[in-house]
Design a protein that fits this description.
This protein has helices at residues 7-10, 13-24, 31-38, 40-52, 79-97, 113-128, 144-147, 150-160, 164-174, 208-228, 248-264, 299-317, 323-337, 343-351, 363-377, and strands at residues 62-67, 71-76, 104-105, 135-140, 234-237, 240-245, 275-278, 283-285, 288-291, 294-297. The radius of gyration is 23 Å and the shape is globular. By secondary structure, it is α+β, with helices and mostly antiparallel strands. A five-stranded mixed beta sheet has the order 3-5-6-4-7, sandwiched between helices. It has a three-stranded antiparallel beta sheet with strand order 8-9-10. The protein is built from 15 helices and ten strands.
């Protein structure tokens, strides 16, 4: 399927208005958002003039680092540019998703980490009673977001999108002349200062369109694995891939073919996490450890949950955030745990939330307990 004649739809008054509402979610009282909402139709007209001139580009990124669990450089854009990305996303992402294989997940509506885990568990159950010993091949792309080739990405987009005005806008977003995103081969984010980063590779972590670009880039690998190699038991979540087989030799052959494709066609490389092991050992995937009849949270995930929740509690007690923020964080974790066999850790997580800033201790635990019970009952 080719995407054609969508430029005018993307940058129409109606779509830009809806894009502003989407981009405003969770930040409606930010100064830049309030400024746009106050002058919304003039902002829409300004965006239309910028993109139709063919010279639209992102002038600069705001850069900060997070350490969850490893150092990552996050690049944030102004609200004005966020609107442009939402306008594009609203139209082209649903069209691109139609061309993806069923078993690709991550940054796709309805296909998050939980869906990916459940799909892999379905595959494991499917082979559990088949004869022989079954193994899994785990593949991971090295420094994926930092090593995406701009040239290859633009070639992929040009094959999918036959709208030159839209392609020019996308190319200007990809080839940012003000901020380099890329890392040299074998280097980590903490090893390369900003001034030594590369302009011709890499995507800014945190951008809405970076998620779209990341998915369409590895769609080429999905198609190769399914159509050329004819792999049946295959699941991908962003750059993490799991493949099942009852033959170690077959998995080694597939690994070699995939590695060759990744290096020559996509100009990427596999990292040291690549391995082949029996599925009886359990498979670590998207934060879970999965067996046919048992699922737990990965140890590193539980530690990160506790760290993040403890930080939210400290921020609340210091008066920096409201209780609703802590509640939302805990609810999201409990929602994840509802699909695991982790009763003890679930209780430990709830018990760790102690709020003492003019609130009754235990109030939040009562609320999330009621929420969790409602989830279990299907209310």
């Amino acid at each position: 399927m080719k995407i054609k004649h969508v430029f005018d739809l993307i940058f129409s008054d109606d779509n830009l208005y809806e894009a502003i509402q989407d981009a405003s979610k969770g930040r409606r009282y930010n100064k830049d958002v309030l400024r746009v909402q106050h002058d919304i139709w003039n902002v829409i007209e300004q965006i239309q003039q910028d993109v139709r001139s063919g010279k639209y580009t992102i002038d600069k990124y705001y850069i900060f680092y997070v350490y969850e669990p490893k150092k990552r450089m996050i690049m944030s854009i102004t609200f004005y540019h966020r609107i442009v990305q939402w306008a594009i996303y609203r139209v082209i992402n649903p069209l691109l998703v139609k061309g993806y294989i069923k078993d690709t997940y991550g940054c796709i509506p309805g296909r998050g980490s939980l869906a990916a885990m459940q799909r892999l568990r379905y595959w494991i159950k499917s082979v559990e009673h088949k004869p022989g010993t079954w193994y899994y091949l785990k593949l991971d792309i090295s420094k994926y977001f930092y090593r995406i080739s701009h040239e290859v990405l633009k070639e992929i987009l040009a094959r999918k999108i036959k709208d030159q005005q839209l392609l020019q806008v996308l190319y200007n977003i990809i080839d940012c002349q003000y901020t380099p995103f890329g890392l040299p081969p074998g280097k980590g984010p903490g090893e390369v200062p900003l001034e030594e980063r590369l302009y011709d590779v890499g995507m800014p972590v945190g951008n809405l369109l970076s998620q779209v670009f990341a998915n369409i880039y590895l769609d080429a690998l999905d198609q190769f694995c399914k159509r050329t190699l004819c792999i049946h038991f295959y699941v991908r979540y962003m750059d993490d891939i799991i493949i099942l087989s009852d033959s170690k030799e077959q998995l080694h052959m597939w690994k070699d073919e995939i590695q060759k494709f990744v290096e020559t066609t996509l100009r990427l490389s596999l990292n040291q996490k690549t391995c082949i092991r029996p599925i009886s050992q359990g498979i670590e995937f998207v934060g879970y450890r999965i067996w046919p009849h048992y699922v737990t949270i990965r140890k590193s995930t539980t530690l990160e949950m506790k760290r993040h929740l403890r930080r939210k509690v400290e921020e609340y007690n210091a008066g920096l955030i409201e209780m609703e923020v802590v509640t939302a964080t805990l609810k999201s974790y409990l929602g994840m745990l509802d699909h695991c066999d982790c009763k003890e850790f679930r209780k430990e997580l709830i018990d760790s939330v102690v709020l003492d800033r003019n609130k009754v201790v235990g109030e939040i635990a009562y609320e999330v307990e009621n929420y969790s019970e409602a989830m279990v009952c299907g209310l």
